[in-house]
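Tokens in:
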């Protein structure tokens, strides 16, 4: 019976994590990964936690443990990155870590030796990259929301479009909005290093965090503190190595900037290897080629991290020599500007997109839209795991919100603002206004 109980703990934990902000398709590797990271007791505890942020008293009640016992368990789990502990309004609140940004990053950023990183790397590789099931579950054709957005390299934006770069799209301006900074290992490069598949010489220590996220990583020894000046300097690695800047998908209160390479980044592979263009939300810019200036060298195509540029035949030169020109797949282009960094003729640069790009204002908005997009919003609205009434409502309301016409309507430009306003009002009525500041 003890064996069956242990098995049930991990199955329940799978369902808990799958019901958070990103889906985690059932795979043997995911089950094995959880058994590597969580003890059976920890799995049982987390599986009984709320899907939304809760204080210590609520966690103790939900998990059926004494407050002191619950606090000890929460501290241990947060130290391992398996629970988030944040204090947006002075009181510490807890929520299970999602698979991304969460379990994957916080496991592979740690160097304390508590987890066999080679084993963890292999299991993460299988459950997140093999067969593309993770991307299919989260970033299919009807998906419009992701946890990350791409920032443009400012120097690659054409002069006539440069005036349209807003502060929330400027990496250095984002840095200037914070006082606390962390620099940690890139979880993706750390993973590929353990797998023996890392092809680049990009330094592993390149993950930048800010504000509450930096505080979390510093408290739990997953990053080291650096100054604002050091943070600005750390961003230069992206220019030197031709890396993509991917940030938290919000306009205010961003938590991180990743400096991503094509050979290691899990999210970039979702686009380049599996073709899920919605894995990353694009910047508001797109690459354009001035064909008269393009010499067809092909450096931009080699530099593009998602293979969105191909060299195609062009009309021959006046001397009759054959030549090629760069053609951009606008359905894939992230608007990162990495291609332009390699262009010596200035024929390739970023211009403003004609189509509007949705970037949520805050983390609260992003989580609401993201869970609506992934079909788990009802878990956030009716988050009490022990209430039979809320369980029934999760089923009924969740089924309604997952209907494609409903989801499309609520995500549309016409209704999205009113929908988010109603969600904010509902949160305040529940006395959980602090969620708006998480």
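Residues out:
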């Amino acid at each position: 019976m003890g064996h069956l109980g242990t098995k049930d703990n991990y199955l329940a934990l799978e369902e808990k994590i799958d019901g958070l902000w990103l889906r985690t398709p059932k795979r043997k590797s995911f089950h094995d990964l959880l058994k590597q990271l969580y003890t059976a007791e920890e799995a049982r505890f987390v599986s009984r936690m709320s899907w939304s942020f809760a204080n210590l008293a609520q966690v103790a009640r939900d998990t059926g443990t004494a407050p002191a016992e619950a606090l000890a368990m929460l501290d241990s789990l947060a130290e391992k990155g398996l629970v988030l502990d944040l204090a947006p309004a002075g009181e510490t609140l807890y929520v299970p870590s999602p698979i991304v940004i969460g379990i994957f990053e916080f496991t592979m950023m740690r160097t304390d030796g508590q987890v066999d990183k080679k084993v963890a790397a292999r299991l993460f590789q299988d459950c997140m990259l093999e067969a593309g099931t993770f991307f299919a579950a989260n970033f299919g054709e009807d998906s419009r929301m992701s946890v990350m957005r791409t920032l443009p390299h400012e120097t690659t934006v054409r002069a006539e479009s440069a005036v349209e770069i807003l502060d929330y799209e400027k990496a250095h301006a984002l840095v200037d909005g914070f006082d606390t900074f962390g620099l940690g290992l890139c979880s993706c490069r750390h993973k590929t290093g353990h797998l023996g598949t890392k092809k680049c010489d990009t330094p592993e220590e390149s993950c930048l965090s800010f504000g509450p996220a930096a505080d979390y990583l510093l408290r739990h020894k997953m990053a080291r503190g650096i100054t604002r000046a050091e943070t600005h300097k750390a961003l230069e690695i992206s220019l030197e190595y031709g890396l993509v800047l991917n940030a938290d998908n919000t306009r205010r209160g961003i938590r991180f900037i990743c400096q991503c390479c094509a050979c290691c980044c899990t999210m970039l592979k979702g686009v380049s290897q599996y073709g899920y263009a919605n894995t990353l939300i694009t910047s508001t810019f797109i690459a354009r080629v001035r064909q008269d200036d393009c010499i067809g060298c092909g450096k931009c195509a080699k530099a593009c991290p998602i293979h969105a540029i191909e060299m195609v035949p062009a009309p021959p030169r006046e001397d009759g020599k054959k030549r090629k020109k760069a053609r951009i797949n606008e359905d894939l282009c992230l608007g990162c500007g990495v291609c332009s960094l390699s262009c010596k003729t200035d024929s390739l640069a970023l211009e403003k997109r004609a189509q509007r790009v949705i970037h949520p204002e805050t983390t609260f908005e992003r989580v609401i839209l993201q869970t609506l997009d992934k079909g788990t919003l009802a878990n956030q609205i009716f988050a009490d795991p022990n209430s039979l009434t809320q369980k029934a409502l999760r089923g009924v309301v969740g089924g309604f919100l997952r209907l494609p016409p409903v989801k499309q309507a609520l995500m549309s430009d016409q209704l999205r603002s009113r929908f988010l306003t109603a969600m904010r009002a509902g949160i305040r009525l529940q006395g959980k206004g602090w969620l708006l500041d998480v």
